[in-house]
Write a structure and sequence with these properties.
Length: about 260
């Protein structure tokens, strides 16, 4: 198993990519700290892991709050004695809105979770990763962090910040044998899709119009990429990378493509 005897902390693990990743990590031998602001959803992930023979513990946490983030790292140490992998996955998306119509409160909510939460996770996890002799951090950015979309200025800007924080930390932490990468998913069938304020069919028409593989990704497909970046055998020479998992969206235009 690729993560045998590792301890992994996954934020936003109550649903979507976070749940799929936590479950996959457990199947690969990791002990998993499941962190989510929704305790009920998080507990479902823990139960799924335990029902399949894995080890997991729940922490109810809001990653935008320093005390909560410090506590979830402390739970990992108190429960399992070490921390080897951090997957900063928690994020929020707000209804598409022109930038000049956004309120300050909405802008702050997006940035507090999507980028401040990633920084806080790293702030409190890094000392423990150093004590463990190294490890891996995988942040969830987005294709929206490297490719703009109208009416999603706060989300795009926050995810772009995740990409650059990832690159900076990869340089800073290399001497400590800590690799830092991020994933940039395209359209994934998660609860965030329902926050677009449109039907699944409308979302597909809007999001997939310029995508060669014209379907939503499954969370389990994204989790496989996180596993690759978290593995110290399979991606041991990979750091500072923003891995695009986008159905070919970044490859070029699809105008004239025969379906």
């Amino acid at each position: 198993m690729r993560l045998d005897n590792k301890v992994a902390l996954v934020t936003g693990a109550g649903s979507g990519i976070g749940r799929a990743t936590a479950e996959l990590f457990a199947r690969e031998g990791a002990k998993v700290v499941v962190a989510d602001y929704n305790a009920e959803s998080g507990q479902l992930t823990v139960r799924s892991i335990r029902d399949n023979g894995g080890q997991a513990v729940l922490v109810e946490a809001d990653v935008s709050k320093a005390a909560d983030t410090e506590r979830m790292v402390r739970v990992a140490i108190d429960t399992y004695g070490r921390l080897d992998i951090l997957h900063n996955n928690a994020g929020i998306f707000i209804r598409p809105t022109p930038a000049h119509e956004l309120t300050e409160d909405l802008w702050d909510r997006v940035f507090d979770t999507n980028i401040k939460g990633v920084w806080l996770g790293c702030k409190y996890a890094v000392p423990e990763l150093i004590r463990a002799g190294g490890g891996a951090i995988v942040n969830t950015a987005s294709m929206a962090g490297i490719r703009g979309r109208p009416y999603t200025s706060a989300y795009c800007a926050s995810k772009g910040a995740v990409v650059m924080l990832t690159k900076t930390l990869a340089i800073e932490l290399a001497p400590y044998h800590i690799r830092v990468n991020c994933i940039c998913p395209g359209a994934v069938n998660t609860p965030l899709i329902h926050q677009l304020g449109v039907t699944q069919e409308q979302a597909a028409a809007q999001v997939l119009a310029d995508q060669p593989i014209a379907r939503f990704a499954r969370p389990e497909e994204i989790a496989q990429a996180v596993l690759y970046l978290a593995s110290d055998t399979e991606s041991s020479y990979v750091t500072g990378h923003a891995l695009q998992i986008d159905g070919g969206q970044w490859a070029g235009v699809t105008a004239g493509l025969r379906r």
